[in-house]
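Protein in question reproduced for absentees:

***
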Amino acid sequence: MNARFDRIGLARFAGSSERLARIVTIASVAFGRSLLWLMAAIIVGCGIWMLLPPSKGNSAEPVKSDVATEPPPSRDAGPSVSPVTQAQAPAAAELDRLRISSQTWRRGGLGSKALVTFTLRNDNDYAVKDLEIVCAFTRRDGSHLTDRSRVLADTVTMKSRKTFARIPVGVVNVNADQAKCSLVAARRA
């Protein structure tokens, strides 16, 4: 058999098949070990990530509004002095004259993000801005899954309505089937 290799000048490769097989075996074992270590690192990393506390926007706890409310002054106390003067404080809008008249939601971002479309009616005699909405997502059976909030910097003029289309409110659970959005806070424009 070596004679045939001699004819074409490949005699030096005749005995290298065993070496080549040994190199391939060593490389495949090293690759397998590397792959095993990579999988172990991914599993440990995911485990640590799952143990971390949730961030503010991703928790399942009810969302609290950042609009400050002052307690009513007591009768025995003298004139109360607010630490924030009326000129410095943002004027909160009356929420009873603001309402969401229609709303729908759909999934976006490969099915993980919620896109909400809603129409906001402003029956006030002034324009409003910095609208904060909170959307509660539920399962098909009606059990609560999570809440997501979003502040919209747009302005809705007085005695009008405005449609906000496909507003991303955050990542939702794959089991979310229904969404109910409500207005939490707004400011006078």
Remarks:
- The beta strands are 98-108, 113-122, 128-138, 144-152, 160-171, 178-188.
- Residues 56-70, 77-89 have pLDDT under 50 and may be disordered.
- The domain at 90-188 is CATH 2.60.40 (Immunoglobulin-like).
- Residues 41 and 47 are 10 Å apart (CA to CA).
